[in-house]
Specification:
- This protein has 9 helices and 16 strands.
- The protein has one domain: Acetylglutamate kinase-like (Carbamate kinase), CATH 3.40.1160.
- The two termini are 19 Å apart.
- It is an alpha/beta fold.
- Helix 6 runs parallel beside helix 8.
Length: 278
């Protein structure tokens, strides 16, 4: 084994992006094989592709905004929140059905119902538009403030694979708010004392040049973080933020890997993608 490989996982968290280009089925098959060997995995999924499809069918165009720090996200107003909740439910149910067909017991945990994840809603967003900073109100997304691992550990004890969408319960109102799936997975990995957090996306990992897969950064440490952040572009910035939060919360290793491979989880654990450690 090389230094980027993990030979054994007792408990892990894997997050797969919801954007178009991510391939879900290979991950589910990989999880079925690994959980069949006794590993415990929590699956956190995104839903942006489903959200875009549903919005299009409803004649509603999603609005994407960029923060002054360069983080790109989807604005979630009241109408968007309802569509996103439906998209999350639809994808979670599809995942559950796929696992059932594979003979894998899985359980859907909706954070705003079973109180796994809590978040603070950000009603007002500061965004950059046409080179100018302005405030955008009526937002229903939030930042994860806590993760209660009890429901996940309960399913682990019953040999059931938990599935969680990118939703959380607002600390003030209890209503569902949209949260970043990568950061939700980071909070879950820390609370569960997971051996590893694997973030799967539709790219090979952190690339120095987005047009050149061979420019993959295979390894990074917290001491290198300023350099890593300067390399990152677009959505990779948020994945690096989630990775840092996980590492600083005592998760031993974070992998950012390609979801489009035949065995995406195993490939990452065996040294593929980008390995990040303290």
């Amino acid at each position: 084994m090389n230094e980027t490989s993990i030979s054994k996982v007792n408990k892990g968290v894997v997050k797969i992006g919801g954007a178009r280009g991510n391939d879900l089925l290979p991950l589910l098959k990989d999880l079925a094989r690994r959980t069949g060997k006794g590993e415990k995995w929590l699956l956190v999924h995104g839903a942006s592709g489903y959200m875009e499809d549903l919005s299009e069918k409803c004649g509603f165009e999603p609005k994407y905004v960029t923060s002054p720090g360069g983080y790109r996200s989807r604005f979630t107003g009241k109408k968007e929140k309802d569509i996103f909740r439906y998209a999350c439910n639809a994808l979670s149910t599809e995942i559950n059905c796929q696992f059932s067909a594979m003979g894998v017991p899985s359980g859907l945990l909706y954070p705003d119902i079973v109180n796994t994840a809590s978040a603070r809603r950000k009603d007002v967003l500061k965004i950059v538009e046409n080179g100018r900073t302005r405030l955008l109100r009526g937002n229903y997304s939030g930042t994860v403030t806590a993760f209660d691992p009890a429901s996940v550990d309960d399913l682990f004890g019953k040999n059931i694979l938990p599935v969680i969408p990118p939703l959380a319960s607002d600390v003030k109102t209890g209503e569902a708010v949209n949260v970043d799936g990568d950061r939700l997975a980071a909070a879950a990995a820390s609370a569960l004392k997971a051996d590893v957090l694997v973030i799967l996306s539709n790219v090979p990992g952190l690339l120095e040049d987005l047009e050149k897969p061979e420019s993959l950064v295979t390894m990074g440490k917290l001491a290198d973080w300023e350099k890593l952040e300067n390399i990152s572009k677009g959505n990779m910035k948020r994945k690096l933020l989630a990775a840092r939060e996980a590492l600083e919360a005592n998760v031993p290793v974070v992998k950012i890997c390609d979801s489009r491979l035949d065995h995406p989880l195993t490939n990452g654990l065996e040294g593929g993608g980008t390995t990040l450690c303290p």
